[in-house]
Amino acid sequence: MDLIMGMNSGSSFDGIDVVLAETELAEDGFPKAPKFLCGGSYEWPEEVRKIVTDAFENRVDMVGLNRLNYICGAVFAEKAAQFMKENEIDPLRVKVLGLDTQTIYQEQPDHKAISEMSEEEKADWPGRWLSKKYPAGTQMGDTSVIANLTNIDTVTHFRPADHTFGGAAAPLMPYLDYVLFRHLDHPTMTLNIGGIANLHVACADRRRMLGFDTGPGNVVSNYMCRELFGVEYDKDGMIAAKGKVNEKMLDYFMHHPFFDRPVPRSGWIADYNAEYISGTIEKFSYLHKEDILATACAFTAAAIVRSMYDNVPAEVIRATRKLYCSGGGVKNPQIMKELKARMPENIDVTTSAEIGIPPEYKEAIKFATIAYSTINRVPGNIPAAGHASQYAILGKIALAPRNISGGAQLD
Ligand SMILES: Nc1ncnc2c1ncn2[C@@H]1O[C@H](COP(=O)(O)OP(=O)(O)O)[C@@H](O)[C@H]1O
Ligand SMILES: [Mg+2]
């Protein structure tokens, strides 16, 4: 068995999750389902936190971004080291560390425009991005800084490989789901409720898999909590529990242009930015503040279910028995209650804990698994889900100092 480590800091920007898991390659060439060993969550240093949140709003210049890339690398390395110290993990025993680093910006591909491009147009490589048809994103956290500080071979930045082939590279969860569920003879759905929520359909045939963003996970509710109640998020859904869902406001939410975008959609917090949410609060300011929050939870759930019916074939929905939920949103009983009320009866809505994956760490386990696949030359994208034109080995690898070969002269 190989020890693998993964880290995640998503669009909620609520902290850095770190996990240790173990796996090995199975006979079919893919990793076996990773076994979770331990995990931890760490806060961003306040000074860095401020720069990243400014970067989300495009308020950091090029000079600042340049430095931020190194700073974030150092923060990730520091948290990885702290995690290993706390759990008595020897870095030399860890085969690989995988993390996407911190996304600060992401554009989705124009799938329609790409499908209409001629082979000649696609052969103009710079033109793929000059035309703005191919997607691009920015992640902060330099791979070499992380590998050299942790002394672990590190794989980061999983998305550009898929982007190069016109894929959305978001969500990336379908690959882990394939690893987890490829032995089953029926489809399995999974849902991750982070800042943005994404739904996936896994099956033994990768060519039939699906994965797409459904709308907000916690991003709307978190923003409202800060704006209306001065807290970071609605712990255990206590505030929303006191409110009533307002159908008019829910209907307004459901008319967001996000739903007109073809899947996989690749939502980003820019879709539900400060301007949109504060405008919505303003529009419905005659409601109780708790009702506004209760409606935000109902919106997350309604958007998930609508996206499922809009994009998953009816026979696949009928054949599905389980929906394994993960991400911080599963800890909000209001979101889960609204979701269960809207899902069809044949689908048991549960969490990934049922299959040994703690919901709060599934994303970090995903990055560990993709990184392990990368160093074993296994493609970590699922073209059927992300709409890339081919399979690709994801990520950028930086080798740790421990690899310096015995023959090399060190003085
Ligand atoms: N106990 C809790 N009660 C309600 N919501 C929670 C709880 N714990 C976490 N969350 C929600 O989950 C979010 C973090 O989810 P996470 O999966 O880490 O998202 P991301 O991948 O975007 O970082 C928090 O911002 C919060 O909205
Ligand atoms: Mg998080």
Q: Would you count the extended β strands for me?
A: 13
Give me the CATH architecture of the largest domain, please. Answer: 2-Layer Sandwich
Radius of gyration: 21 Å
- Spatial ordering of strands, largest sheet: 3-2-1-4-7-13
Residue runs with pLDDT of under 50 for 5 or more positions: none
Mean pLDDT: 96
| CATH top level class name of the largest domain | Alpha Beta
Report how far the terminal alpha carbons are from each other: 35 Å
The small molecules bound here are: adenosine-5'-diphosphate, magnesium ion
**What name does the CATH topology of the largest domain carry?**
Nucleotidyltransferase, domain 5
Give the number of domains: 2
Task: Describe the overall structure.
- The chain is α/β, with parallel strands linked by helices and 411 residues long.
- It is 40% helix and 18% strand.
- It has 17 helices and 13 strands.
- A 6-stranded mixed β-sheet has the order 3-2-1-4-7-13.
- α1 (46-56) packs across α2 (62-86), α9 crosses α12 (274-283) and α13 (289-311) packs across α15.
- The two termini are 35 Å apart.
- Bound molecules: adenosine-5'-diphosphate and magnesium ion.
- Magnesium ion is lined by residues 10, 12, 14-15, 17, 328.
Name a few traits of the molecule.
411 residues, alpha/beta, Nucleotidyltransferase, domain 5, 2 domains, 5-stranded mixed β-sheet, 17 helices, 18% strand, binds adenosine-5'-diphosphate, binds magnesium ion
